[in-house]
C-alpha cells in the first residue's frame, strides 16, 4: 500500500536552506520595505498575502509540471523573465513619482495585494526553485504518491518560511517609518527605495540569465 503522507527525511536541512534563500535580498524584500514605508503596515500585510498566494500558486503549478516546462522551453522562460523584470521596473518608477492623490485604504490594499501576486507569478526564479532546489531534498523519499506528498510538504514549508520573513520585514519597516517618512525625508526615502528596487530588478534580470 502506498503511503498517503510521507514526512520528508531531510526537512531540517531544507528549512535552513529556505531561510538562507529568503534572507538574501531580493525583489520581495525591496518591494515590501518601500511599500510599507510609503503606505503603512496594513498595506504591507496585504502585499505579504499576495506574495504568499503567488508563491503557493507557483508551487502548485511547478508540482504539475510548470517548472519542468520552463526548464525545457527557453522561449517561455525568457518571456517570463522579461515580464517579471519589466513589472518590477514599473513599480520602481511608480514609487519614484509618488502617489498622485490619496486612494482609499481598501483600494490601496487591493492594489498592493495584486501587484505582489503578479510579481511573484512572473518570477521564473521561484518556479525553478521547485525544480532545481527542492528535489535535492527528496532523494530518500519513496516514489509515486509518497514523493508527491513530500513535495507538497516541502513547498508548504517554503511558503510558510517566506511568509514569516516577509511579515517581519513589514513590521521592521513600519517601526522605522516615523523616522524616515516625515517632511522632506519622505520624498528622499521613497526615491532611494525606488532606486533600490530598480537595481534589484536589474539584478533579477541579469541573475536569471541562462
CA radius of gyration is 18 Å
Number of domains: 1
Q: Biggest β-sheet, characterized?
A: none
**Gap between N and C termini:** 42 Å
Total strands: 0
State which percent range the strand residues make up. under 5%
Number of separate helices = 9
Which structural class matches the secondary elements?
Answer: mainly alpha
Helix content: over 70%
What shape does the CA trace take? globular
Kindly report the average pLDDT value: 76
H/E order of the elements?
HHHHHHHHH
Low-pLDDT runs of 5+ residues are 99-107
In short:
By secondary structure, the chain is mainly α.
Q: How would you describe what is shown here?
A:
It is a single chain. With 210 residues, the chain is an all-alpha fold. The protein has one domain. The protein has nine helices and no strands. It has helices at 11-23, 27-39, 41-63, 66-72, 74-97, 105-121, 124-132, 145-180, 184-207. The longest helix is centred in the last third of the chain and has 36 residues, at 145-180.
Defining traits:
single chain, 210 residues, mainly alpha, 0% strand
Secondary structure layout:
Elements: H1 11-23, H2 27-39, H3 41-63, H4 66-72, H5 74-97, H6 105-121, H7 124-132, H8 145-180, H9 184-207
Helix pairs in contact: 1-8, 2-3, 2-5, 2-6, 2-8, 2-9, 3-6, 3-7, 3-8, 4-5, 4-7, 5-9
